Amino acid sequence: MPFLLRAAIVGGGAYAVGKRVQGGRDQNAAQDQQINDLQQQQQAQAAPAPAAAAPVSAEDGMAKLTQLKALLDQGVLTQAEFDMQKSKILATM
In 47-76, where does DSSP find H-type helix? Predict the structure, then answer.
């Protein structure tokens, strides 16, 4: 009987220590996750905003539109690609 009692006490103690160690690991993992989340938020806030397109003069805009039309006529651009680029150029003029 004393042997079984001693084994139960040792086993129970080992179980309690194991639970405490696991709890510490879980807490560390949660803290690591919070740190990672905060770092990602800081990086997102620190990211510079994309620069606005510089205004294009009318002459430059017309030259670009002429080049685009030539690319469309040569079959390099599709009509949809041409229209998209054309609208971007016109928006900056």
Answer: 58-74
Q: Is the pLDDT of residue 76 over 60?
A: yes
Are both 35 and 3 inside the same structural domain?
yes
**What torsion, rounded to 10 degrees, do the Cα atoms 22, 27, 32, 37 define?**
130
Number of domains forming the structure of the chain:
2
- The answer to whether the Cα torsion of 82, 88, 89, 91 is positive or negative is positive
pTM of the entire structure? 0.41
Amino acid at 6: R
Instruction: Give the single-character DSSP code of 49.
Output: P
Residue-level pLDDT at 52: 59
For residues 6 and 40, membership in a common domain is answered with: yes
Residue 52 lies inside a defined structural domain of this protein: no
